[in-house]
């Protein structure tokens, strides 16, 4: 069932009860046919603006799906099912899931996306928050998706229509945040999509070590950082996994039990191949800005945690981004959503817009909660 309405300002929702991946995908595709066609149309416009021709995008989409089939067969079945249910060529869903790989193959540079902060208090559940920054023309593509696994595990993800996963949390107490990176080793030989890696971690990993092992088993052609957090009700762990074709680095918590990340590599070895510069990205300003706000992020109140990231370019640290409409659409960036994970309850909370728009009653939960229950 889909809660999408293009006139609404909140985030669309979908709940999948199907246990078979192919049937889950087909049911999703049938329920969200219009949204999936619109999602591919938006990405077609973006790819074309960045120099991607239809034939080349089709080839890369097919490769992304083939790489997924070899590394995560169940997710390839789910993606193919989405395409079939929506009446789309399967390569188009391959390109949606491989959108980071396509953009890396097109050698895209630019502002980048997302700022993540995680604090593990000495007692109690982890405290997490991130912005999801993307082109403002993609606002209608956001989705909160909850699904059941045959094992009884439930996965909840903030993602985009047609993309199997991004930021998420499981009923077993594992969560992931997600930021894009760019590396000199990124290449055109399309590998396993990083969004597929994030989803498989949500589907299968129980520990940070499980997530590291899964990430290192994938042949990658593009870069991202997946921040993995676990909580068993008493003990919490976290690590930042910097993914690149040159390797996967594991970033530990600092001495204050904090992890922050923006859009450049922090591992010293991988940083030698950094593909982002201060000339095109605010990432180098945003990272110390996040660190400066950790005291305010370290609170059980998710609204206060999100508001701690309320900082604009005119204040020197553009953590909360707003589109410059003097620029063409493919060069505009905006904080389209703010997300926080509740690992103790196995819930994901998302708020439409950046930190400056966050209000106590504006959060949406995955899985959905009855109106009035979000605190």
TrEMBL record:
Q: Which residues form the Peptidase C45 hydrolase domain?
A: 129-286
Query: What protein name does the entry list?
Result: Peptidase C45 hydrolase domain-containing protein
Which source organism?
A: Amycolatopsis minnesotensis
